[in-house]
Each structure stands twice: as C-alpha cells, then as structure tokens.
Amino acid sequence: MDAREPEIEDYVAFASSKRMRITHVIDTHVHADHRSGGPDLARRVGAPYCLHVSADVRRPFTPLEDGAELELGNTRIRVLHTPGHTPESLSLVVTDLRRGPAPWFVITGDTLFSGAVGRPDLPGKARENASRLYTSLHEKLLDLPDEVEVYPAHFGGSACGAGLSGKPSSTIGFEKRFNRALSLGRDAFVDAVAVVAPKPADADSILEFNRGNSDR
Hints:
three-stranded parallel β-sheet; alpha/beta; Metallo-beta-lactamase, Chain A; 6 helices; globular
C-alpha cells in the first residue's frame, strides 16, 4: 500500500518473514510527494498494480471501482472512491471475518489524517477539490462506525496536509469529536483547506514520474 520507491525490498522481506504472499499492490492515489514504488513492487512479486479506475496515468494498472470488494481469505477489502486530495483518491475499508462482519479499520491514504485532512491543491483546482473532499469525508468516511480504526498514509511532518497530529492512527469517532476540519460546514471547510503551504519544489516532476510520463 503506497509503497515508496526505496522500500520495495522491505515489503518483500516483511511478507516473507510472515510467510505471506503479496497479492495486490495498491496506491491510494497518484502521489506528488514521493516516487511510487508500486509498479516495480508489483512486477517484483507478480501481483497486479492497482489504482482507482479514474487515475490519469499512462502506465498500465488494474482499475478499482467504487464499492468493489477484494477477497483475501478471511479478509475483505472494500474500495471507497474518496476524491478531494486528488480526483482518483481511494480509501480501503478492511473487515476480518474472524472478528465478525463489521468493518475493523479503514486505510485513508491522504484523505483523512489524525487531526487533519488532505490538502486539495496539488493536482490544481484547489477549491473544487476541497468541495469534493468535503463530500468524501461526510458521505463516505464519517458514515463508518465510530469504532473503526483510521490508518492514514502520513502523520505529523508531512507536506500533504496542514496540522497533522503526531499520532499514526486514530478512530472515526475520535476524528468526529476532535478534528476541527470535520466540524465545519462546506463553505467554511473549502475556505479553510484550500489555502495551504506552497507545493513541494519537486511535486510536479514527481507527479509526472508517477503518471508514467517520465523515467527520471
């Protein structure tokens, strides 16, 4: 999930140490802060490289539709299209049937962080994307049960959002109560999150690489 280019062998070694096989390699979105190792990891382990079906990339990938479900033994992974940070952003709701039919945790990529939300400006059209982000949060993620654990792609120190907590994980209920951005109405939310720090200096070149438009 969201593998960085230098981390490919770490994923392979970890899976081997647990006697597990990597069956899917998924990027939650086309990244602007790091070169993705997803395509190379997928080739390395012989698994499909997956993005949301709307991803604007030239490299081949396996498309994931909103509502699709991946069956991995006792584990079920439901795809949620959660645009806003980027148009193709997705989140993954994970259920372990040994625990029961209710969702256990959600992988939110750069859509929802601990204490913050993703910045909407990196692909351009910041205010339009901010409004889409509001919808994704309130009509998709916040509809999940309060006890569902939240695992975002970043915590404090990332340039992909403002005001991120140092906590690497949270719960839906905690974020509803303490994440200030989630208490705002749509207009106030757009005003608040569309104004962010300057883009990372190399964001455009990283996006081009991850879209398959550059080998450099």
